[in-house]
Amino acid sequence: MLNFNRFIIVFTLLICFTSCNNEAKKEKKDESTKNTTIVIDSTAFKAEKKDYKIESVVKDVVLSSKAEVITLVKSIDEQNLDKQQKFAQEFFIACAQQDYSKAASFLAYKGTDASRNNKASYDASIANEKSVVKTTVDVIFGFLAESSNYKFVSSKEKVVSVGKVQNLEITFFKKGLGINRLFFEVIDTENGMLIYNMK
């Protein structure tokens, strides 16, 4: 009888131990499935190594010649332009022809002579004034030479330090991709209209 009781106790302990051990294994398995890490064997992908050339969408743009720039500028329809836009258009013609003397007459003087500041134009016969005009004309010529076309977008009045100006927005469509935008501020003076600022 004593042996039988021992047997039952050992048997009960064995069942408890097995049951607890199975429960622990189950919990450990559940935890391991929560933090599953996927390992990819990189040697399984045997991609060929090749050099690929990506061709540029934008080819090198060839700048227009002086004759082509003049043709572009003269092709602009002035019919729907206001008087300030027509004034700017005349300035573009002078820039296209690289006529520095004529272009000087469009630009408001900004220099050491306070009596002329924003009241008179530059004088291309004076060396340092011609230098300012030449730089400005060459920049505008560059915009025109790299453009397939340009358009006067808007003309709005605004007030600046010298008074009222007409702010002109002009968009230059590049031969490749993209655009350049310029804003001209045109003022009325006793000597007529002048381009006060460009940005």
Secondary structure elements and their pairing?
Elements: H1 2-34, H2 66-74, H3 83-96, H4 100-104, H5 127-145, E1 147-160, E2 163-174, E3 179-189, E4 192-198
Antiparallel strand pairs: 1-2, 2-3, 3-4
Concise description?
This protein is an alpha+beta fold and 199 residues long. 40% of the residues lie in helices and 22% in strands. A hairpin with a 2-residue loop joins strand 3 and strand 4.
Average pLDDT across residues?
Answer: 82
Strand fraction: 15-25%
**Order of helices and strands, N to C?**
HHHHHEEEE
Number of helices: 5
Distance between the termini: 111 Å
Outline the biggest β-sheet.
Answer: 4 strands, antiparallel
Structural class: alpha+beta
Strand order of the largest sheet: 1-2-3-4
User: What's the gyration radius in Å?
Assistant: 40 Å
Query: What low-confidence regions span 5 or more consecutive residues with pLDDT below 50?
Result: 40-47
Shape: globular
The beta-strand count equals 4
Description of the structure:
The protein is an alpha+beta fold and 199 residues long. The chain has helices at residues 2-34, 66-74, 83-96, 100-104, 127-145, and strands at 147-160, 163-174, 179-189, 192-198. Strands 1-2-3-4 form a four-stranded antiparallel β-sheet. Helix 2 (66-74) runs antiparallel to helix 3 (83-96) and helix 3 (83-96) packs across helix 5. The longest helix has 33 residues, at 2-34. It is globular, with a radius of gyration of 40 Å. It starts with a helix and ends with a strand. Residues 40-47 have low confidence and may be disordered.
